[in-house]
From TrEMBL:
Organism phylogeny: Eukaryota, Fungi, Dikarya, Ascomycota, Pezizomycotina
Keyword tRNA processing appears in the UniProt entry: yes
Alphabetical list of Pfam families matching this protein: RNase_P_Rpp14
One Gene Ontology MF term: ribonuclease P activity
Protein name as annotated: RNA-binding protein pop5
E.C. code: 3.1.26.5
Family: Belongs to the eukaryotic/archaeal RNase P protein component 2 family.
Chain intervals for the UniProt region annotation (Disordered): 160-183
Length: 183
């Protein structure tokens, strides 16, 4: 039996042209402005189409044929502008290059952006763990930038004394045991 090997790319969609309010008292911290939510018009199908068009632009019909059968957006969160993309292990660099060269989301969103590949993983579990870790860290950064006002971190994350990167003594974080990535 042949096992199909995939790579999972965890990406962040960043919007560098955030609107800066004129009143500094109501201004959002820079961290929050750069990591703003995506439009609800951004869907997994639209993101897949954007990636395919980018691969075709950079690598032509060869690139389109190589990623056509394996390219799938497994997870997309417009609230955090985060996505997990699955692609065949042999061709993940084509998708990575297309994402790196992306400067604008397609219509109907049509907003300038920067796509940052945060992690390349052999399992979706590791990509999910990294997404959770980065979300917790961004909540902490935004809270520190805002001066520590508002709800406590415990109330936001639904736990007591939860810090980014903390695990218990057994090496288990969030009920998921750590597992080495496959090459």
């Amino acid at each position: 039996m042949v096992r199909l090997k995939n790579r999972y790319l965890l990406i962040n969609i960043l919007y560098p042209s955030g609107a800066n309010p004129t009143n500094p008292a109501t201004a959002l911290p820079d961290v929050v402005q750069f990591h703003q939510p995506s439009s609800d018009a951004l869907t997994a199908q639209l993101l897949t189409r954007m990636i395919r068009e980018g691969v075709v632009e950079l690598f032509g019909d060869y690139g389109a044929g190589m990623v056509a059968g394996s390219l799938i957006v497994k997870y997309l969160s417009p609230a955090t502008s985060t996505a997990i993309i699955r692609v065949a292990r042999a061709h993940y660099r084509l998708v990575w290059a297309a994402l790196t060269c992306t400067t604008q989301l397609p219509r109907p969103v049509a907003q300038s952006c920067v796509v940052q590949v945060v992690r390349v993983s052999g399992t979706i579990r590791k990509a999910e763990e990294e997404a959770i870790r980065r979300a917790r860290a961004s909540v902490l950064r935004a809270r520190r930038a805002a001066g520590g006002e508002g709800l406590g971190l415990e109330a936001l994350l639904g736990g007591e004394g939860v810090e980014a990167g903390d695990g218990n003594e057994d090496g288990v974080m969030g009920g998921i045991e750590s597992e080495d990535e496959e090459e």
